[in-house]
From TrEMBL:
Residues 2-172 form the Ketoreductase domain. One of its GO terms (biological process) is fatty acid elongation. The lineage of its organism: Bacteria, Bacillati, Actinomycetota, Actinomycetes, Propionibacteriales. This is SDR family oxidoreductase. GO terms for molecular function: oxidoreductase activity, acting on the CH-OH group of donors, NAD or NADP as acceptor. It comes from Nocardioides jishulii. InterPro entries: KR_dom (IPR057326), NAD(P)-bd_dom_sf (IPR036291), Sc_DH/Rdtase_CS (IPR020904), SDR_fam (IPR002347). Belongs to the short-chain dehydrogenases/reductases (SDR) family.
Length: 230
């Protein structure tokens, strides 16, 4: 199985959860540094040739990729009138186009196997929107349409495609917020706290388990109730 962006934060927790189950896990990131026990590869998901090369190494080492968790993502936050072309394209290229490269390459092997699990990591922001994150929200909303289209295309071959939409999770990305910002966010979350990366990982491992064999095209929120109804 493959987890992209698996060197830190949510991606690392997902990779570690699969490793704890005894699975053969590969992780990719731009800088490397995946968890111990994983096949650690450097890969820029915006480069289709690099994605293909990474899959080739994984297939030669672990065999076909039966589970893909597309987690790699970046932000470049600013208000829309200040957002540069580079701010827009870098986020869309990584979060949306990069996921297209991954799912296209993964589907090739899964169709031959006649089974597979694809899990795309979106965000509550993709469903609710967020001021200063037009690019990020658009990229994460796009993953929902991508997943549901893939679910329809690939379902007849026992390949499921689902989305996990985390809310505010305690990671390096949220650590930069001020205490005041964190307190304000918590007032908006019905459970009154940030989530833990392991709680996102639990949802992903369930979607990859036999117990979720009849779940496809779903968006699973792990957001403390922040995005309910969306």
């Amino acid at each position: 199985m493959l987890v992209t962006g698996g060197n830190r934060g949510i991606g690392r927790a997902i990779a570690e959860a699969f490793l704890a189950q005894g699975d053969l896990v590969a992780v990719t990131s731009r800088s490397g540094g995946g968890p111990q026990g994983a096949l650690d590869l450097k890969c820029d998901v915006t480069d289709a040739a690099a994605v293909d090369a990474a899959f080739t190494v994984i297939e030669e080492t672990h065999g076909p990729v039966e589970v893909l968790v597309a987690n790699a993502g970046i932000t470049a936050d600013t208000l829309v009138l200040r957002m540069s072309e580079d701010d827009w394209h870098s986020v869309i290229d990584t979060n949306l186009t990069g996921t297209f490269h991954l799912t296209k390459r993964a589907a090739k092997g899964m169709l031959r196997l006649r089974r597979g699990r694809i899990v795309l990591i979106s965000s509550v922001v993709g469903l609710l929107g967020s001021a200063g994150q037009v690019n990020y929200a658009a990229s994460k909303a796009g993953l929902v349409g991508m997943a549901r289209s893939l679910a329809r295309e690939l379902g007849s071959r026992s390949i499921t495609t689902n989305v996990v939409a985390p809310g505010f999770i305690d990671t390096d990305m949220t650590a930069v917020l001020t205490d005041e910002q964190k307190a304000t966010i918590k007032t908006q979350v019905p459970l009154g706290r940030y989530g833990d990366v392991t709680e996102v990982a639990n949802a992903v491992t369930w979607l990859a388990s036999p117990g979720a064999a009849y779940v496809t095209g779903a968006v699973i929120p792990v957001d403390g109730g922040l995005g309910m109804g969306h």
